[in-house]
Write a structure and sequence with these properties.
about 120 residues; Inner membrane transporter ycaM; transport; transmembrane
């Protein structure tokens, strides 16, 4: 039997993981537009946002993610609601999350098309 060489697993570093989560929750637009309009004074708002929104959001998600760990359920909002409040709440959570994601996807695709138009044509025509 041929012995396979085991390679150590590679994990994401904390800075990369935290920036991934930050951009997923906040988004790029919410970083660039205020900075463009307000300048460096927006950094104070970012610190306040970090303390009162991002840190509690991360702690809540971490707690719920480690509390509900059954592999057959998949995790996420619907699992958290279904396991705590019942199947009806789990269903409505899934449905509302899906319904609010559709306009977001349309908005993101529109932003990508506009950005590509500016990049290719240079005048957004």
């Amino acid at each position: 039997m041929q012995e396979e060489e085991l390679t150590p697993r590679r994990y994401m570093s904390w800075p990369v993981l935290s920036l991934l989560v930050f951009i997923t929750v906040i988004g790029f637009e919410n970083i660039f537009y205020p900075f463009q309009n307000q300048g460096l004074s927006v950094v104070v708002n970012w610190v306040i946002l970090l303390v009162i929104y991002i840190v509690p959001y991360a702690l809540i998600s971490a707690q719920l993610g480690t509390t509900f760990t059954r592999a057959d359920e998949g995790g996420g909002l619907a699992t958290w609601m279904r396991r705590t409040l019942g199947d009806t709440w789990g269903y409505w959570t899934s449905w509302i999350y899906w319904a609010q994601t559709l306009p977001y996807l349309v908005d993101v695709s529109n932003a990508v098309i506009v950005a590509l138009s500016w990049m290719i044509l240079g005048d957004n025509s």
